[in-house]
Amino acid sequence: MKITLIRHGEVEVPYIGKYNGHNDIGLSKKGEKEAKKLAELFTCKEFDLVYCSDLRRAKETLKPFTQAKNALYTPKLREKSWGKHEGFDFDEITAQGVVYKNFSQWIEALDGENYKEYVQRVKKFFFEELAVQKADNVLVITHAGVIRVLMAIVQNLSLEEAFTLALPYASYTLYDTDLKTFSTIKT
Fold it and tell me: Is the Cβ–Cβ distance between 171 and 184 less than 8 Å?
């Protein structure tokens, strides 16, 4: 199976660089243009299945795609929830008294969705639910964290290593499930 993973376009300006999690925010004007550009790139591409996070920024990224009419929207492809820390950046969170010692400690220090449960949610979607579908080509519109978690699982990376990988807004990553390879393209 070949999976095209698209990170949503740039978010509304006040939310750039923030821990947005389940905040249901839309795209910026630039993000809307990025979505149209992505849709043009994939105009002639046939997908057997199309999945999209049910959060607004992902849905708005998929909207200009001709394949959007067949999409399945699911909360299983949402970013991790950061609870009361959603909508804040690193400095704003540390100003609330949360101390950064290392990646693992930081992830555990922030509330919201338990990180192990988040990883299991991503794992279950890709390796249990999607894996049994009769499909050769799949399109998935989601979030950087979901893509990085998938990469960590497949490539046996630590989550800290995976979260250093650059996945700009509106980039897409091609994942070949047979070869277990990824290639990320910046648009």
Answer: yes
Q: Spell out a b/e string for 68-104, using b for 16 or more CB atoms within 10 Å of the CB, else e.
A: beebebeebbbbbbbeebbebeeeebeeeebeeeeee
Rg (CA), the chain: 16
pTM of the model: 0.96
- Confidence at residue 176, expressed as pLDDT on a 0 to 100 scale: 95
Catalytic residue among 8, 22, 85, 143: 8
Check if 8 is active-site.
yes
57 is in an annotated binding site: yes
Question: Of the listed 10, 34, 79, 86, which one is catalytic?
Answer: 79
Active site residue 60: no
- CATH tag, 2-185: 3.40.50.1240
